[in-house]
From TrEMBL:
Keywords for the protein's UniProt record, in alphabetical order: Membrane, Mitochondrion, Mitochondrion inner membrane, Repeat, Transmembrane, Transmembrane helix, Transport
GO molecular function (one): pyrimidine nucleotide transmembrane transporter activity
Positions annotated as Solcar repeat: 2-146, 156-239, 269-353
Membrane topology of this protein: Multi-pass membrane protein
One GO CC term, this protein: mitochondrial inner membrane
Organism field: Anopheles epiroticus
Protein name as it appears in the record: Mitochondrial carrier protein
Main location, first listed in the record: mitochondrion
A single BP term in Gene Ontology: pyrimidine nucleotide import into mitochondrion
Top-level division of the source organism's lineage: Eukaryota
KW Metal-binding (keyword) present: no
Length: 369
């Protein structure tokens, strides 16, 4: 357990800058959009030309003041289109427009707020990692074992995994939502260095205890991401096991007397396959369920524009189009996929050690560290 806590804490520290970028991009007042729109180098370019083919109208800010009314209309349309695209850097929704990179977003934060701003919300994140993962995996395992024991549903069926993941997500989200709410508020604070205590006090004074649970509905909807993730993960793991058992080498080993490589033994290849299955399943799940992340961030912002989950999704859709529902997706994938791959391999290693203590020495060195 201590190793998992240390690994989770290290992962939170390393990926915190990407978490800040993702949260800022998801918000309704992303500073990256305005910064990019005001810079000549950040104009949206397609093959060296502006998207509206009137690059001579927007070459310099001073030229705008002397342009004709017709060119003003062209420039206004181009700038509107540009801001909408820059709101979703690297999310893969546009193939003809090049957007600002994650590196440019990180550079902008350092230039305007200092390097310490890349680690805003790190405190609540570190505090929440250990209990969140512990609660989730505990609830998942308990629910899965209970459903398998009761026998109403076929053991280890996809439905068992769906119900187990749903229960675990509900319990974990409910227990840790205040921590993530504080983290989001601190990451969105771009004007002052707000401490955790100040953040808690401001939320409590303005909204009371209920304020710490804003966006909880979006978190519950986000359980679908976890469900999709674990269902695909279990299916891939089962398929990989079938392929392994049907291979000539496995059949030859099964017919011999090698017990170490039989049903109980694990090799480095097993854990590499777990990592690949975890990364693949998480990528698919993140893309499918990502809009709930944008809605959750908007609901956690200060103000009353966004009141509930469905109203938030509809508002974002109307004002920003479908692209607005996927703002920051690229950053999310870069941040989350490696972590998930390592986490799932670690989870399988821990489960293996706990259920096969006599075979723990058979674990490959790379998997046990």
């Amino acid at each position: 357990m201590m190793r998992k806590i240390i690994a989770g804490t290290a992962g939170a520290v390393v990926t915190c800058p990407l978490e800040v970028v993702k949260t800022r991009l998801q918000s309704s007042s992303s500073s990256f959009i305005h910064a990019a729109a005001s810079s000549r180098h950040a104009l949206v370019v397609d093959g060296g030309k502006l998207t509206d083919n009137h690059h001579h109208h927007v070459r310099h800010v001073s030229a705008i003041n002397n342009a004709t009314s017709a060119s003003d209309r062209h420039h206004s349309a181009a700038r509107h289109h540009q801001s909408r695209i820059l709101a979703i850097p690297q999310c893969g929704l546009s193939t003809s427009v090049q957007s600002i990179s994650i590196w440019q977003c990180l550079k902008h934060i350092v230039q305007t707020e200092g390097s310490r701003a890349l680690f805003k919300g790190l405190g609540p994140n570190i505090v929440g990692v250990a209990p969140s993962r512990a609660i989730y995996f505990c609830a998942y395992s308990k629910t899965k074992n209970t459903l398998n024991t009761v026998g109403i549903i076929p053991a280890n069926s996809p439905l068992v995994h769906i119900l187990s993941a749903s229960c675990a997500g509900f319990v974990s989200s409910t227990a840790t939502n205040p921590i993530w709410f504080i983290k989001t508020r601190m990451q969105l604070d771009s004007n002052a260095r707000m401490t955790v205590g100040e953040c808690v006090r401001r939320i409590y004074e303005s909204q009371g205890v209920r304020g710490f649970y804003k966006g909880i509905t979006a978190s519950y909807v986000g359980i679908s991401e976890t469900v999709i993730h674990f269902v695909i993960y279990e299916a891939l793991k089962k398929k990989l096991l079938e392929l392994r058992q049907s291979s000539p080498a496995a059949k030859a080993l099964a017919s011999g007397d090698g017990s170490a490589g039989g049903e109980g033994g694990k090799t480095s290849r097993d854990f590499l396959e777990f990592m690949a299955a975890g990364a693949t399943s998480k990528t698919i799940a993140s893309v499918v369920a990502y809009p709930h992340e944008v809605a959750r961030t908007r609901l956690r912002e200060e103000g009353n524009k966004y009141r509930n989950f469905w109203q938030t999704l509809l508002t974002v859709w109307k004002e920003e189009g479908k692209a607005g529902l996927y703002r920051g997706l690229g950053t999310q994938l870069v941040r989350q996929i490696p972590n998930t791959a390592i986490m799932m391999a670690t989870y399988e290693a821990v489960v293996y050690v706990l259920t096969n203590p006599a075979s723990a020495s058979l674990l490959p060195t790379g998997a046990s560290n």
